Amino acid sequence: IQSSNLLTHSSSVVCCVLCCQLGCWEITQDCLMMYLDGKPPANQFLCRAYLCQGQLISSRSISTAEDLDKAVMYYLKAIEIAKDKSRYHFLVFNASLLYLQSVRRFLRPGQRRLLVSSLTQVLEALEEVQDPDHAWRAELMLHLVECLLDAGKQKEAAAVAKVTSDLIQAHKPELYPRLFSIQVNLSLLYCVINPARAAAAVLIHSGSISPKYLVFSFFSTELICFWLISYLVNIRSISAEFRSCFSQLWLSVIARLDALLQTALKQADARATQAVCVCQWNTCLPLLQHNLRKRVQKPLLTLARALQHTHSLLLDVLCRVHTELAAIDEEDEKLESAMKHLQKALELDPLSQHLSSSLQLLQLRSSVHSAPTRPKERAAKLIQQAKEGSGREALRKRRPLLVSAGVALAPDAFQTVLDADSKVKGLSGDRLELLAAKAQHHSSCVQKVKGHLDGLDKSSDDKERVKLWGSLAKTARKQEVFDVCQAACRFCLLYDDGRWKNTTDVCNIKIISGSSVQTLCRDCKSFLVDFPED
Asked: For this UniProt entry, which residues form the secretion signal (predicted)?
């Protein structure tokens, strides 16, 4: 009976591992519950179960330190069991692979510090079992150096960098350029040197580096990339008569890089693939404009596929690529595809409010037959409908949409503030009396803005509301509905009271407001002083 139970337990773990590989997470969870409820012994099957548990947690969206700790805990439990018995040492290496795969999205500035403790334990375990894959250990040690720097631990980072340097020079010299770039860029060379002799010591230390450690393993691929970059630099210096062909020349370089990227993928060279991806992204940046981005859709798709296939740590680049692909699909009215790209971008950067609001707008656009219930959602949908219109004939249709959006955001005040720039009816008299009446009417209408914030629910999302006001102002300006633009700017600038540190968007609204005021004054043609005729 005991052997039968052990067989059942081992079968549950084997089934669990297969389900993890196939992505059947519900079955994985059932198998884990079945196995762990039986209080299994500490053997290789328990290690594998812990690894599956970590993958199960990682399959969901990990965006907080608490979620990260839950997933990492199971990998560390598996490592603790596996490192005590020599026949289980291979599981320590497997756990380190799955660990890095799970924490990839945290390997970025500002979040690396969360990995210092767990990554240190993983490396200590690999050192304890004397894992023979020195390249993998060096890769993890390079990540640890960056994590320590992100946590502000300069001295510890310098010590780890020294150990990493010795390991790389002894076993994997092609990784030395990466370590050296980290040392130079982040001034690690100064941390272990007497400050009084820093300059001379750095020169001596740099001069002792053997040239063979500074040779890239993918030199030929890099050489082609550098040649293409120099070609782009030459394009910028072409005389004016050839500027009309600028985009075509730029696209030809992108096509060459795209072919080079596909070759690197076929050769399964991850480092070369990543190098070409960086070069391709930098080359595509100038063409990511409203009228040109559609022409780089195919290269961007190849770029995203390459970064995902190689499990690249260029998460910010991959997030930006998916965001641009979503914008391209949105312009082509491919809303389902655009939402998929935005969801992938949000998985890489779950704290981005811009991505979440963009996804929410796409979801509103896709739900044609369902009317939004929240006022903010109604306003967002009306603004989006106004954006889709074009041409002078549609101006009369777009203006009511923009006004309705403003009323949805401020039902008690928007229409009154909008009337501030309208003509005063039923007045007669000389010019000064008309101007005085208009100024008094304008002042009384604008006063309605001041009490708007006091009447709002204190638990409401101010950031979402101010973004909608800003979007309304920008859309109205683009559609040349300047009175709606000016009214929206007044409400948007109410939030310029020091509540947020980043005021870039508010500065843009101030510029738009000034431009709309200038246009309204020009249209009114009301001046206090008549200029003499020539």
From this structure: 1-19
What is the pLDDT, as a whole number, of residue 168? 81
Give the span between the Cα atoms of 358 and 464, in whole angstroms.
11
Closest CA to 355 of 375, 376, 341: 341
Report yes or no on whether pTM surpasses 0.85. no
DSSP code string of 117-143: HHHHHHHHHHHHTT-S-HHHHHHHHHH
Instruction: Give the C-alpha separation, 81 to 88, whole Å.
Output: 8
User: Taking phi first (over 0 means left), then psi (-120 to 50 degrees means alpha), and beta for anything else, what does residue 344 get?
Assistant: alpha
CATH number of 219-366: 1.25.40.10
Q: Is 522 exposed, middle or buried (0-12, 13-18, 19+ CB in 10 A)?
A: exposed
CA–CA distance, 357 with 513 (Å, rounded to integer): 24
Cα-Cα end-to-end distance for the chain? 112
* Residue 207 identity: G
Residues 254-302: pLDDT tens digits? Answer: 888 888 888 888 877 777 888 888 888 888 888 888 778 888 899 999 9
Q: Centre a 10 Å sphere on the Cβ of residue 97 and count the other Cβ atoms it contains.
A: 13
- Count CB-CB contacts under 10 A for residue 454: 7
Q: Domain 2-214: state its class.
A: mainly alpha
What local confidence, expressed as pLDDT, does residue 224 receive?
53
| Burial class for 421, CB neighbours closer than 10 Å (0-12, 13-18, 19+) | buried
**Would the CATH topology of 2-214 be identical to that of 219-366?**
yes
465 closest CA partner among 502, 492, 483: 492
Neighbours of 476 (CB within 10 A): 28
What one-character-per-residue DSSP string does 451-498 give? TTGGGS-TTS-HHHHHHHHHHHHHHHHHTT-HHHHHHHHHHHGGG-SS
* 312 closest CA partner among 358, 264, 263: 264
Annotated domain spans of the chain:
2-214, 219-366, 412-453+463-524
Residue 226 pLDDT greater than 80, yes or no: no
Closest CA to 58 of 83, 356, 50, 124: 50
| Whole-number Å distance between alpha carbons of 98 and 311 | 12
Cα 224 from Cα 231, distance rounded (Å): 11
CA distance 164 to 121: 16
